[in-house]
């Protein structure tokens, strides 16, 4: 019955159908590791984690809640700043079975949903790093490269990303300039188309990977739910009908709350995914708008304008398709749940379908217009080449004239520079000779001063050496006299100490012998008187014989049934005997000896013994110390001073 009650209480307190563990999951470490194209965050716990996740936007964040968990020695904030993750915040709230440890990852940019996997007692979160957008760069045309050699027409080539113009690749043969220009445009168009295809394939692969990850996470959640259901059924077997009904009601309420939470998270994830796809499309469009375009010919300008229009159309179609996917997902989810979809979503989906048909018709018309534009582009390129040829010839003539004038100016400048150099060399030579004379005079003065300084230093060193020798002799003489005086004083002090010690020992021995004789006589007298009185009384009971350590002493005490009658006999320097006439021990345990030698005191052992009609308590000492006796009601106590306590108290 007790086991059933414990299972029921665990079920109610755990927030799920399984029994809660006795200890919370302690998160002791959060690590951030860079691995290739991803950043891995490892959350170390004390047991397998039970967790939920959800995403947040503006700014983008990913949150992991670990139920029945707490943080231990984990910093509140871990700064990363690797271009993908800004920081990781570690928070904890709640207590007991409601404790939750929250790990929040703040991103510096939009990323795909992280991959979360449980491994033993750890939780591994992998965040993919977004790849840098690949720029499709078309090589400049050979004709442009040749024209760039002329000074007047030198323009740095800028990468061109051409638009998709169907049918232009086969419009002419490479036998004349017009055909060559058209062929180059067709090659750029093909490269752009290939890049777009690869980008779309990559996007589809990423979408499929997200679907697989979400399916895997759903399977894991389902597996945990099955395990929790099995634990709940096992716990219900030992419950009473009332407990089972209460647990079932609680489980249904929790299941409903979990279903609502899952639905909310699914809606948020769908909206976040659509928002991210639209945002990526807008960023690609903005990035293309910032690309520099060569302004070498009318053909390039027209191609760039057409490419931007096509790219904008493509990105708009991508964003529209993402919004359509969100609408379809909402409608399908509502139908799958057996409820009527939102009328606004159904209406919007119908409008989108109608707009899609109109867009397809517009694209077909645009394709036809592109073919006509390609023909016009070839003609414009032919005219532009003729105009550029004339401009190049004129620029070449002007360049030759400018070079001849520049050569004449350079010759005049060379002659003037040589004359100026000869004059400067003559002046520099004269300045060097003058500087050499001044330097020689300065060095001679320095040598003379150094010689005088050396002579004075030698004299000072000799005087200092003589003074040091004299001081050393005086010091040695003083030390010799001081040692002799110290030896005499030490000898006299030792003689005085020996005499005083001998006298004190004699006095102490005499006083101790007299005190011992008096104490033994008094103890014998007391013992005889006590024995005579005790013989006429009722026997007293010894209820306890004990030992206790006090702050400054060691206490041996005897507790009796009435006020104690006793005598104390010093049987030796290290043996004290307490005689208790007309007594008997109540507990057999109090007849055993007490070994107190391991205590830091003077008492080594306490031994109770029965003697005739009385009891004797013998106290063996480690060394002879002073003691005091106390009688408090029915307790007799002897307090022995700690060895060295008296001398320590007397020390200054």
Folded structure, characterized:
The protein is α+β, with helices and mostly antiparallel strands and about 650 residues long. Among the domains are: about 1-130, Immunoglobulin-like (Sandwich), CATH 2.60.40.3500; about 535-650, Immunoglobulin-like. Helices cover about 55% and strands about 20% of the residues. The chain contains seven helices and 21 strands. It has helices at about 1-15, 140-145, 175-235, 240-290, 300-335, 345-535, 645-650, and strands at about 25, 30-35, 40-45, 50-55, 60-65, 70, 75-80, 85-95, 100-105, 115-120, 120-130, 540-550, 555-560, 565-570, 575-580, 585, 595, 605-610, 615-620, 625-630, 635-640. The protein has a five-stranded antiparallel β-sheet. Strands 16-12-13-21-20 form a five-stranded mixed β-sheet, with no helix packed on it. The protein has a five-stranded antiparallel β-sheet with strand order 14-15-19-18-17. The chain is flat and about 150 Å long.
């Amino acid at each position: 019955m007790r086991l059933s009650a414990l299972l029921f209480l665990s079920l109610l307190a755990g927030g799920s159908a399984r029994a809660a563990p006795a200890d919370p999951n302690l998160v002791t470490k959060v690590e951030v590791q860079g691995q290739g194209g991803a950043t891995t965050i490892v959350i170390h716990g004390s047991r397998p984690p039970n967790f939920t996740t959800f995403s947040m936007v503006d700014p983008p964040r990913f949150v992991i809640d670990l139920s029945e968990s707490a943080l231990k020695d984990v910093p509140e904030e871990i700064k990363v700043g690797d271009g993908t993750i800004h920081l990781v915040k570690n928070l904890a709230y709640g207590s007991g079975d409601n404790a939750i440890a929250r790990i929040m990852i703040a991103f510096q940019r939009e990323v795909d949903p992280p991959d979360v996997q449980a491994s033993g007692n750890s939780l591994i979160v992998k965040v993919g790093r977004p790849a840098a957008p690949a720029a499709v760069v078309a090589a400049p045309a050979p004709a442009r490269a040749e024209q760039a050699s002329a000074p007047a027409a030198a323009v740095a080539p800028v990468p061109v990303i051409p638009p998709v113009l169907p049918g232009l690749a086969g419009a002419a043969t490479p036998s004349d300039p017009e055909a060559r220009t058209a062929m180059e445009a067709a090659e750029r168009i093909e490269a752009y188309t290939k890049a777009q295809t690869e980008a779309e394939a990559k996007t589809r692969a990423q979408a499929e990977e997200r679907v697989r990850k979400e399916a895997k996470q759903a399977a894991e959640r389902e597996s945990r739910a099955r395990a929790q259901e099995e634990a709940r059924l096992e716990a219900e077997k030992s419950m009473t009908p009332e407990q089972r009904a209460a647990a079932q009601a609680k489980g249904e309420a929790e299941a409903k709350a979990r279903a609502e939470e899952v639905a909310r998270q699914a809606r948020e994830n769908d909206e976040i995914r659509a928002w991210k796809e639209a945002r990526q499309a807008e960023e690609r469009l903005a990035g293309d708008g910032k690309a520099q375009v060569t302004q070498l010919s009318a053909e390039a300008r027209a191609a760039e304008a057409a490419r931007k229009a096509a790219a904008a159309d493509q990105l708009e179609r991508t964003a529209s398709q993402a919004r359509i996917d969100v609408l379809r997902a909402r409608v399908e989810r509502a139908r799958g749940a057996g409820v009527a979809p939102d009328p606004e979503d159904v209406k919007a989906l119908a409008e989108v379908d109608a707009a899609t048909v109109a867009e397809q018709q517009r694209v077909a018309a645009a394709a036809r217009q592109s073919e006509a534009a390609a023909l016009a582009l070839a003609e414009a390129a032919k005219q532009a080449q003729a105009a550029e040829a004339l401009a190049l010839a004129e620029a070449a003539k002007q360049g030759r004239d400018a070079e001849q004038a520049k050569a004449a100016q350079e010759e005049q400048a060379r002659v003037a520079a040589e004359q100026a150099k000869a004059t400067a060399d003559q002046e520099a030579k004269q300045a060097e000779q003058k500087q050499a004379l001044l330097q020689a005079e300065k060095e001679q003065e320095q040598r003379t001063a150094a010689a005088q300084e050396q002579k004075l230093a030698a004299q000072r060193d000799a005087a200092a050496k003589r003074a040091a020798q004299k001081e050393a002799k005086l010091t040695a003489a003083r030390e010799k006299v001081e040692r002799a005086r110290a030896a005499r004083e030490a000898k006299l002090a030792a003689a005085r100490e020996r005499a005083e010690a001998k006298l004190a020992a004699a006095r102490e021995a005499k006083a101790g012998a007299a005190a011992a004789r008096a104490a033994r006589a008094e103890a014998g007298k007391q013992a005889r008187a006590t024995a005579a009185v005790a013989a006429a009384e009722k026997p007293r009971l010894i209820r306890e014989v004990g030992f206790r350590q006090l702050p400054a002493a060691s206490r041996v005490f005897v507790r009796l049934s009435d006020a104690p009658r006793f005598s104390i006999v010093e049987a030796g320097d290290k043996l004290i005997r307490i005689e208790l006439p007309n007594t008997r021990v109540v507990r057999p345990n109090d007849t055993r000896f007490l070994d107190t030698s391991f205590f830091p005191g003077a008492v080594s052992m306490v031994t109770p013994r029965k003697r005739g009609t009385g009891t004797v308590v013998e106290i063996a000492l480690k060394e002879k110390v002073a003691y005091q006796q106390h009688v408090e009601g029915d307790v007799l106590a002897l307090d022995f001073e700690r060895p060295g306590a008296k001398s320590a108290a007397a020390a200054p």
